[in-house]
Write a structure and sequence with these properties.
With about 300 residues, the protein is an alpha/beta fold. The chain has two domains: about 180 residues, inorganic pyrophosphatase (n-terminal core) (Alpha-Beta Complex); about 110 residues, Diaminopimelate Epimerase, Chain A, domain 1. It contains eleven helices and eleven strands. The strands form two sheets. Strands 3-2-1-4-5-6 form a six-stranded parallel beta sheet. The protein has a five-stranded mixed beta sheet with strand order 7-8-9-10-11. Bound molecules: manganese (II) ion.
Length: about 300
């Protein structure tokens, strides 16, 4: 029976490329592994896989009775629904430690770096396994995506060094140009429903017993949202009710201005004020310098709700 390597629900490029890279590594060291995914491939990830000619992992939602290697989170809310009937054999992650737990010992690669794929590169180095050029290419793109081409406050020297090394293997001359090409793909919002946009990179968290959903859309120019902001807000309101959420937020991030507009609906009128020191006007607040959900949003919300 293989180990299934799987990232979080609503998978991003780090989850997909990371699952592929970990599964390849495991197979090289004699442990049968299969990369899987918990949802659709995003346009950004489709671009990356196409660019380097790599197949998407298979969609697999049920893991009862299986061995699972978790990539890019350690949260019950982001894991397969039946994860408690599976055996978690490993976790590779760069987020805050979540609430997943195990009944048996596990392998844990958790580091405060900008991307899970940076840690996966360290795993390849540890096992002294060569990275094929195509896999190096998708790993490199995942790091460029998660670190917003090195601009995110989550980006570390390790991430930059990994990108350098992976670019050599993958034969990429200009990583920043590749990164911008990728973010332009990510910035396309035309002909896409509000629900699809809100859910494109949406994560639920359990904060002191409250269900908090936070989505993020990273674009090259925030003006692409001007005409659709009201639709996005209407959909957020629906999502809040449907999921019985305490709070829903959507971060509209402009990667060139290095700032985000926060759209918010909450049962707690003072939450944004307590968390970020700004008062939203009609559910909207401008957050200067904010690019990272994991480092600049989630910790403040956790604290404000504790
Ligand atoms: Mn990640």
């Amino acid at each position: 029976m293989p180990v299934y390597v799987v990232g979080h629900k609503i998978p991003d490029s780090d989850s997909i490329c990371g699952a592929i890279a970990v599964a390849h590594l495991k197979n090289q060291i004699g442990e049968a592994a299969v990369a899987t995914r918990l949802g659709d491939i995003s346009p950004e990830t489709a671009f990356i896989l196409e660019r380097f000619g790599v197949e998407a992992p298979e969609l697999k939602l049920s893991y009862a009775g299986e061995e699972v290697y978790i990539v890019d989170h350690s949260e019950l809310t982001q894991a397969p629904d039946d994860i408690e009937q599976a055996t978690i054999v490993g976790i590779v992650d760069h987020h805050k430690l979540g609430d997943l737990t195990t009944a048996t010992p596990l392998e844990a690669w958790i580091r405060p770096v900008g991307c899970s794929n940076t840690i996966i590169k360290m795993m390849y180095d540890f096992y002294n396994v060569e990275i094929p050029p195509a896999i190096a290419g998708i790993m490199l793109c995942a790091i460029l995506s998660d670190t917003v081409i090195f601009k995110s406050p989550t980006c570390t020297t390790a991430d930059r060094r990994c990108v350098e090394a992976l670019a050599k293997i993958a034969n990429v001359d200009d990583v920043k140009a590749l990164g911008m090409e990728m973010f332009h793909v990510k910035s396309a919002v035309a002909n896409t429903s509000a629900r699809e946009l809100v859910m494109r990179d949406f994560k639920d968290f359990n904060m002191s017993g409250n269900k908090i959903g936070v989505g993020q859309l990273e674009v090259v120019d925030i003006a692409v949202f001007d005409q659709i902001k009201a639709d996005l807000e209407a959909d957020l309101a629906a999502l809040k009710t449907e999921g019985d959420r305490h709070t829903v937020m959507l971060l509209l991030t402009d990667i060139m201005q290095e700032a985000s507009e926060l759209l918010v609906l909450s049962d707690d009128d003072e939450l944004v004020e307590r968390a970020f020191g700004v008062t939203p006007t009609e559910g909207r607040a401008w957050l200067d310098g904010v690019l990272s959900r994991k480092k600049q949003i989630i910790p403040h919300l956790e604290k404000a709700l504790s």
